[in-house]
Write a structure and sequence with these properties.
It is built from 9 helices and 4 strands. It is of the alpha+beta class. The longest helix is centred in the N-terminal third of the chain and has 17 residues.
Length: 187
């Protein structure tokens, strides 16, 4: 097939790539589609147009183009999630309050050590909590604090942002809103 010659053909190439990709595609990934003959600003413009194209006829389209931390992806609109979940009836993992509190502390205060988390929560952090969050690829070790014992520093990952449909941590609700909800601190 010849190289796309106009905007319509370029958007069709983008659409095909995004619809068939198994994960979000970054701008760098998408630039490869055009053999380096496209500027990033042009690519962003085309993605914005494609997003608008899919949003225009709101009733006929079941997918939407979204930007997440690692790139762009098509995903089902929220009103279809219940039906799609029936395809994989596996139960979504249930996370304990301790896991969710630990994740919230890491997300809002990162980078943090286990000691920081324990000080905020007021209880010891179970190693299984940290393991569970790392296995889910929601947190990772990003370095060590330069103090005696050099404890590991934890931060959230781009996978965490993707799973929550966020482009960056700045899209999290304000910490004050989160901190005002009363949560008993259980281990």
């Amino acid at each position: 097939m010849k190289e796309p010659e106009n905007i319509i053909e370029m958007k069709q190439v983008l659409e095909a790539a995004l619809l068939t990709a198994g994960q979000p595609l970054s701008l760098d990934d998408l630039l490869k589609l055009f053999a380096g003959r496209m500027e990033r600003t042009t690519l962003r413009m085309l993605l914005d147009e494609l997003k608008q194209d899919w949003a225009q006829d709101n009733t006929a389209k079941t997918l939407e183009l979204v930007q997440v931390a690692t790139g762009y992806r098509f995903q089902a609109k929220p009103q279809y999630s219940e039906f799609i979940a029936r395809l994989n009836p596996e139960k979504q993992p249930k996370y304990s309050r301790a896991v969710m509190e630990t994740l919230a502390i890491i997300a809002y205060k990162q980078p943090v050590t286990r000691g920081d988390i324990e000080q905020i929560r007021g209880v010891a952090v179970n190693p299984n909590v940290m393991r569970q969050l790392q296995e889910r690829d929601w947190i990772d070790i990003v370095g060590q604090r330069e103090v005696p014992g050099r404890p590991s520093l934890y931060a959230t990952t781009k996978h965490f942002l993707d799973d929550l449909n966020l482009r960056s941590l700045s899209e999290l609700p304000p910490f004050e809103d989160f901190a005002q909800t009363e949560m008993p601190l259980e281990g």
